[in-house]
Amino acid sequence: MTSDQDKPGPAPARARTSPFRRNRWIIPLAPEGARRQGAISALAFRLLGGRDPALDFLNTEDAALGGRPIAVATESEAGYANIEREIHARSVFPGATHGG
């Protein structure tokens, strides 16, 4: 038999936090910006040879393109068109079209 002293006590209370908490200081992307960001990412993944080359291109500051390509493409239709042309120029699949 065991005594009450041998029984474990209640588990300590855990803080109610969520790893998915929203950061109140970050403004979400406008729907059009989010659409452009998703489209340019998909195009880069498809034409630049996969995830790693695409992420390297999209996230590397490029003065000739006016900043990080993902940010340039997200902010306007003109920026998107410029980055789209650059992705086609760098494509590992010569003659590839947007539709893949």
Describe the structure.
- With 100 residues, the chain is mainly alpha-helical.
- The chain contains 4 helices and no strands.
- It has helices spanning 31-47, 51-59, 69-75, 77-90.
- The model has no long low-confidence stretch (mean pLDDT 86).
- It comes from Sphingopyxis macrogoltabida.
- Residues 1-22 are annotated as: Disordered.
- This is Antitoxin Xre/MbcA/ParS-like toxin-binding domain-containing protein.
Q: Could you give the distance between the termini?
A: 72 Å
Q: What's the average pLDDT?
A: 86
Percent range for β-strand residues: under 5%
Number of helices: 4
Uncertain ranges? none
Protein name: Antitoxin Xre/MbcA/ParS-like toxin-binding domain-containing protein
Fold topology:
Elements: H1 31-47, H2 51-59, H3 69-75, H4 77-90
Briefly say what this structure is.
Residues 1-22 are annotated as: Disordered. By secondary structure, this protein is an all-alpha fold.
Main traits of this protein?
single chain; 100 residues; mainly alpha; 4 helices; 47% helix
